[in-house]
Amino acid sequence: MDATAIILAAGEGTRMKSKHAKVSHSILGKPMILWVVDAARAAGCTRIIVVVGSHANEVRELLNTHYQEQTPCVETVEQTERLGTGHAVKIALEACDIQSGSVVVLNGDLPLIQPDTISRFIDSVASDNYAGTVLTMTPPQPFGYGRVQMDTTGSIVRIIEQKDCTPEQDANLLECNAGCYAFNGEQLAKHIGSIRAENAQHEYYLPDMVEILKAAGERVGILHCSDYRDGLGVNSRAQLAEITALARERINAQLMDNGVSFIDPLQAWISPDAQIGCDTVIWPQTHVLGHTIIDENCQIGPNTRIIDSIIGKDCIVDETVALEVQLEDQVTCGPRAYLRAGTHMLAGSKAGTHVEIKKSTIGEGSKVPHLSYIGDTTMGANVNIGAGSITCNYDGARKHPTHIGDRVFVGSDTMMVAPVSIGNDAIIGASSCITRDVPDGALALERSNQRIIEGYGAAKKRRTQ
Ligand code: UD1
Ligand code: CA
Questions:
Q1: How far is ligand 1, taken at its centre, from the CA of residue 107, in Å?
Q2: Which CATH number fits the domain 259-444, given the four candidates 3.30.450.40, 3.20.20.370, 3.40.50.1820, 2.160.10.10?
Q3: Residue with CA closest to ligand 1 atom 29
Q4: Which residues pair with 148 in a beta bridge?
Q5: Where are the alpha helices (DSSP H) in 258-314?
Q6: Among candidates 312, 270, 269, 307, which has minimal Cα distance to 290?
Q7: Which of 11, 126, 435, 456 would you label with 33, given CA atoms 20 to 30 Å apart?
Q8: How far is the CA of 443 from the centre of ligand 2 (A)?
Q9: In whole angstroms, what is the distance from residue 132 CA to residue 128 CA?
Q10: Is 2.60.120.510 the CATH classification of the domain at 3-231?
Q11: Residue 77 pairs with which residues in a beta bridge?
Q12: Which of left, alpha, beta for 140 (phi over 0: left; psi -120 to 50: alpha)?
């Protein structure tokens, strides 16, 4: 199958009232445009072209970061003047020299479109039966959508934008254009120039292709979307929130079907790109974002945010923020742990309460249970870090590493001033400031001697009476 997808993302998105491109706004942590591009990729489109315009650099950068070195690559075409969806498609066809094959056009604000809907569209024009097909739906609130006018036989006649509808058309035409089209590339290229901007918005409307192709004697069909939610567009913040809720509902239902438990599925936000294993329980107020993978039988949350991380089996992640980390099996973290990029916790290790770990390896069975900061550290197995101990990894200008061997016991309130190395089986006395390497098996103690002044309390009391 040889199909090109043209995704329209140049619009101003005025109704969002935002300083960012509309399509860069996120749904479950994933920018809207990536939902649409991923759907086109999953449908098997061999060429993907995104028309950018308003905030072009922002959108281009998003696409470059996500699809760099991927096949098919995602090309961008700039529409410098926003003269409408028809104009945007014309520019893409010309810039990319498209004159044949199947062409799917998708609005960039159509995040819930399903890959199999797109492939059905491609099939509809690939067979040469139709020069064009349009996805239609009957949403409960048709306000703002282009309305599909049909003849008595049920064939599409034209699409009338809401702003161009008479009050009767507005009230009676309830079938809406979802903003997903497929065209025979040859017919599209041949007729796109016939679109005129004689309408309420003085724009070149892509939906006018329906009437134009029909007038040229070509067949145009509709595919009715049985689930209107697939075709909802995002034009405002309220619609963004509505789509987020719909996406969440679908993703969580699918996960529950696969054996994941939710204490309350209304209070868990899981990315469409995340994977969660069976018997894992998701507690309320939990966000699992990006390409996170969570294995089986974990307890995740409550009050947890995990982004682009890998979590093994049987882990407990309680009130934790974890960004780009890897936890092996049976790791425990939280409540209130902050695990930052580059943290790798080996099997059975623990990051406890009010613990922050950055770019560090915590060895098998090692424990950092309370109030600690561990940064730029490699830690061996079965280490115990006493409460309030930290690695001083930053000298104000540069970061330095700390190495902690196996079975080390670090007493509470220890400062390990990096660069420093602590040998296997070493012991550090509580409240020490460690500035020199500690050999294997040694005791390191850095604290002033404790003074005892007998009877001091009673003497003080007498003085103040
Ligand atoms: C459009 C359709 C409407 C349909 C609805 C479905 C037109 C004229 N109307 O209306 O029939 O029911 O989508 O959601 O197409 N864009 C460009 N360049 C432009 C203008 C728009 O790239 O010059 C992009 C936008 O960024 C957006 C998409 O095209 O992603 C649709 O534009 P938008 O303004 O949202 O159209 P709607 O009014 O929603
Ligand atoms: Ca729209």
A1: 6
A2: 2.160.10.10
A3: 8
A4: 159
A5: none
A6: 307
A7: 126
A8: 68
A9: 10
A10: no
A11: 51
A12: alpha
Alpha-carbon distance of 176 to 141, in angstroms, equals: 10
Name the percent of the chain in helix, strand, coil, to the closest 5. Answer: 25, 30, 45
For the CA of 232, the closest atom of ligand 1 is: 14
- Which protein residue's CA is at the shortest distance from atom 35 of ligand 1? 235
Taking each helix axis as running N to C, give the angle between helix 56-67 and helix 32-42, from 0 to 180 degrees, rounded to the nearest 10: 50
Contact by Cβ (8 Å): 430, 413: yes
CA of 142 from ligand 2 middle (Å) equals 12
Element (DSSP H or E) covering residue 439: none
Ligand 1 atom at minimum distance from 54 CA: 26
Q: Which amino acid is at 32?
A: M
Q: What is the pLDDT of residues 250-292, one digit of tens each?
A: 999 999 999 999 999 999 999 999 999 999 999 999 999 999 9
**pLDDT 10s digits, 380-410:** 999 999 999 999 999 999 999 999 999 999 9
Q: Beta partners for 133?
A: 182, 221
List the domain boundaries for the chain. 3-231, 259-444
CB atoms inside a 10 Å sphere around CB 455? 7
Amino acid residing at 83: L
Comparing C-alpha atoms, which of 353, 374, 351, 388 is closest to residue 422? 374
Which of 52, 77, 85 to mutate for ligand 1's pocket (most ligand atoms within 8 Å of CB)?
A: 85
Predicted confidence (pLDDT) per residue in 103-149, tens digit:
999 999 999 999 999 999 999 998 878 999 999 999 999 999 999 99
Q: What is the token pair recorded at 51? A: 């028309």
Q: Is the peptide bond before 167 cis (omega within 30 degrees of 0)?
A: no
Cite the DSSP H helix spans in 47-179: 56-67, 85-95, 115-126, 167-172
Report the separation in Å between the CA atom of 146 and the middle of ligand 1, taken as the mean of its atom positions: 10
Amino acid at the residue 268: A
Token match 């115990």: residue? 384
Indicate if ligand 1 lies below 6 Å from the C-beta of 111. Answer: no
Tokens of 386: 């006493």
Sheet holding 409-410, edge to edge: 261-262, 281-282, 299-300, 316-317, 332-333, 350-353, 367-370, 384-385, 409-410, 427-428, 443-444
Bridge partners of 300? 282, 317
Q: For residues 142 and 228, is the Cβ–Cβ distance under 8 A?
A: no
Count helices and strands in the chain by DSSP H and E runs: 9, 41
Print burial letters for 267-283: b (CB count within 10 Å at least 16), e (below 16). bbbbbbbbbbbeebebb
> Rounded to whole angstroms, how far apart are CA atoms 339 and 377?
13
| Mean pLDDT for the stretch of residues 413-431 | 98
